[in-house]
Amino acid sequence: MQKLAKVDEMNAVLEELSSQHLKGKVRALRLSLMALLTGGHILLEDIPGLGKTTMALAFASALGLSFGRVQCTSDLLPSDITGLSVFDRSEGRFNFIRGPIFNNIVLIDEINRAMPKTQSALLEAMEERHVTVEGVTYQLPEPFLVLATQNPVEQVGTYPLPESQMDRFLIRTGIGYPPEEIEKGILRQGSIRDEIMHIPALVRSDDLVTAIASVKEVYVGDKVTDYTYAIIKATRNHPLILAGLSTRGGIGMVDAAKAAAYLHGRDFVAPEDVRDVVHAVCPHRLIFRPEHEGVDKEHVLNAILKEIPLPLT
Amino acid sequence: MVRIDLLLSGLTACIALISYLPLQEYLDPFARFFFPAALVLAACLQVRGRALPPRVLTPASILLFLYLASQFSLSRLVPVTADLLVVFLGVRLLGERIGRNYLQAFALSLFCLAASSLYEISAIFLVYLFSLLLLVAVALVLLTFYAEDPVSALPAREAKKVLTVAALMPVASLPLFLFLFLFLPRTQYPIWLTNAPAGKKTGLSDTVQPGSVQSVSEVKGAVLRAITPKVPEQQLYWRAVVLNAFKKDAWVREPVPGDAPAVARGDVVLQEIYPERTATQYLPALNVPRAIRELRHDASADGVFVSRRPLDKKVRYLAESVLADTILVRRIDRDFYLRLPEQVSERMRGEGRKLARSGKSVEQKMAALESFFRDQRLTYANTGLPVGGDPLDSFLFEKKRGNCEYFASCYAILLRLGGVPARLVGGFRGGTYNDVGGYYLVTEDMAHVWVEAYLDGVGWRTVDPSSWALGGGRSQQARGLSMYLDMVGFYWDKAVVTYDLDKQLSLVRNAGNKARDLRLPPWFGRLMLLALPVLAALVLLVLWRKQRPPTVEARLLRRMLRLLAKRYPGEIKGDEGLFELSARLQDRHLARFVGVYGAAVYHDRPLTRAEAAELNEIVREASQDRS
């Protein structure tokens, strides 16, 4: 098996972050890295105070990437994210002041507080990877990862993302409370926000670009494609589900599985890679029938996965 | 979806019920009612999703045990054990629904059914046994699902598949069943005889004393079944016993004084007779039996055959009879056959004297008596029989109703009074012919007594005085369901119960003889020697090919997975990916294996020769690695 480019470095970052700075957030970290490697975006859905921002900060500094942050409010305008032209009197012309989105890693905090207009401007930028302001198109930097957070509990004065827009995020996940021992350690230690600011970069930006390129090279075989398609088809034919996975959802599954295989040091996707990313990639793309809205999406997905055997031969 | 737990509980209830039913009539009232109550309670608990905890059940079991065991004695060994089994089975049903309790319930059910066979061996046992085996097999399979996940449910299609496979298992064992049947030792009678012979009131007895009871109840129990061609109705007399002397007023049997051996001429009829268990040892056969075979017996000159051993188990014998109304006997002890009972009424003596003085021949006397009987206009009846001081007198001249005992007694006594030697013959009259099975069923209500009168120098002539009654004449033909039911029971006895050690031995002997006498061409042996291994090899090859995965990859993977299943028992669930499994088990052989294997398989290319060799090597190393 030929060696995958930069896979050790990537795993080292994960290892370093999860063991030193962000204990108990392996899963979220891993998924974020996968999103970054596939060029997707990630939506963290959890209550405030579980370290979403800390994680994003640490992630950016460990990868040696620039970090931008947008705190959403209901009066946030699209230009607050993208940036705007300001007249420079001394030079006598308009200068474009870049907004926070012109960073490698952009944390959009509480995306559901922004009004739909701002949300869609943001989503458009995520999709297109460039911003057009006053007729001029500005390319966003590479690599580019949007880490959006959403508070599922608070509902007053929010504009929750509709399912169709959730589809733009490759991965949606929660963070969850850290395990007891780790949380006690955190309590003892206090906040590590300052410390995180000084995490040395473990990789360089072009390492990441190389890694992203080699994730694209990961091979997806017929068996894996068949397996993925079987899952998609099962969600489309399921009695409880109104709209199953879209094709974009399927692509997302395969992309995420590629990243997972890459992080496992394989240059091909195994069926279990696909199965492992299903829970991160799929639930937010499924629309249940109105009468079954209360059903736990994870359960339904588990049942579907149980029905479809992994292709072993 | 089919819920496994409900299915399993239902099956267990059925199993328990099946084992309780055959035992039910022999149980103590307490156990008899405890079990249904427990079953109903268990059903209620199941509906509520609850069960009695062990801290309730264990003391209850101990108390029940003490209560039942207190009735224990050596003579009540089996009844007490049966009660205990049934009560414990009931208790088990109430307990928590866990695998161990289910298994105990199954075992207790089998024991209960086994216990029922100590009391009774009948064909219905086979039905119970087969349904129990079938249900237990299915339940055991379901139990494996249940043990894995108590709340699991199967889709209807899968459940059907599981049930079919489970049900096929006992069916597949049937040939073995039959094979073992031929060789295993057996009993021909229930080991725990609950006074079975005495309990059955036979219509046949070796004393006849008219007037001892006022009415005769008609018991419909079977007495015997005889495979024989159809016999004309008027000749359907089954001879069992001859009563030739008196003890006070009752007809009894005394040893036959120097009669010459009896000869009868007529059509010979062979019968294969299966008598039910009785307390008497007389072997009935069609009148007049000439010989009995295949059962040890004593024969007397008056055509009475007595078995040497009690008929307390199911037996069979062959009888050879001559359908004749006269038994040729040259010489008899006239005085013996002319003795009279202690008490004979004046009116009967008068009739007898009239007959004796008439000076007619024996045949004329018999004819005269027949017309006397007909003139009396007697009625045949089983109820309102004459009793009291002189029942026979009352029968002949006053009440004028009676059963065969009155007719035969009066006729024989009047003959003797008239100087004609006479005796009573006890047996059965008639029989229900089963057209399907080709046999006669004789029941106890067919018990009958008739008369034989001696014609000088000729022999004993059969006369049935009952036939001179007004109306009369009985004939029956089995119809419908009862005929088939009786036939099933009969063939069960014939094929299973009376199949004993003798037959087993003779089967082996016959097989041995047949094998010795087998003549085959000389080349046959050599050909078979060659052909058999080839055939066997072919069969094995076909089986192997069928079972073998089609590709090299699949075969290698199967070998590896089997190896792992052996090394990590219970760890391989089959729903994991290979890399996942490798990461979980941390097995270095597996890690190497999946590295090579996955690279090829998930790259959509076949294994190269080198890779296949490497994988083989890994599997080999893994199989030798004992660490």
Walk me through the structure.
- The complex is a heterodimer of chains A (313) and B (627).
- Chain A has 313 residues and is of the alpha/beta class.
- In chain A, strands 2-5-8-1-9 form a five-stranded parallel beta sheet. Chain A has a two-stranded antiparallel sheet with strand order 3-4.
- Chain A is built from 13 helices and eleven strands.
- In chain A, strand 3 (83-88) and strand 4 form a beta hairpin.
- Chain A starts with 6 loop residues before the first helix and ends in a 6-residue tail after the last helix.
- Chain A has helices spanning 7-21, 26-38, 52-62, 78-82, 116-128, 163-166, 180-189, 193-197, 205-217, 222-237, 247-263, 271-281, 297-307, and strands at residues 42-45, 67-71, 83-88, 93-98, 105-109, 130-133, 136-139, 145-150, 171-173, 241-243, 287-288.
- The model of chain A has no long low-confidence stretch (mean pLDDT 86).
- Chain A has two domains: 7-211, Rossmann fold, CATH 3.40.50; 218-307, Helicase, Ruva Protein, domain 3 (Orthogonal Bundle), CATH 1.10.8.80.
- Chain B is α+β, with helices and mostly antiparallel strands and 627 residues long.
- Chain B has four domains: 2-183; 203-339 and 420-492, no CATH class; 518-542, no CATH class; 549-624, no CATH class.
- Chain B is 51% helix and 14% strand.
- Chain B is built from 20 helices and 20 strands.
- In chain B, the strands form six sheets. A six-stranded antiparallel beta sheet of chain B has the order 9-12-7-3-18-17, covered by helices on one side.
- In chain B, a hairpin with a 3-residue loop joins strand 19 (447-455) and strand 20.
- Chain B is elongated, with a radius of gyration of 37 Å.
- The relative contact order of chain B is 0.08.
- Classes of the chains: A alpha/beta (313), B alpha+beta (627).
- Chain B: This is DUF3488 domain-containing protein.
- Chain B: Keywords: Membrane, Transmembrane, Transmembrane helix.
- Chain B: InterPro entries: Bact_TGase-like (IPR052901), Papain-like_cys_pep_sf (IPR038765), TgpA_N (IPR021878), Transglutaminase-like (IPR002931).
- Chain B: Residues 396-467 form the Transglutaminase-like domain.
- Chain B: It comes from Geomonas propionica.
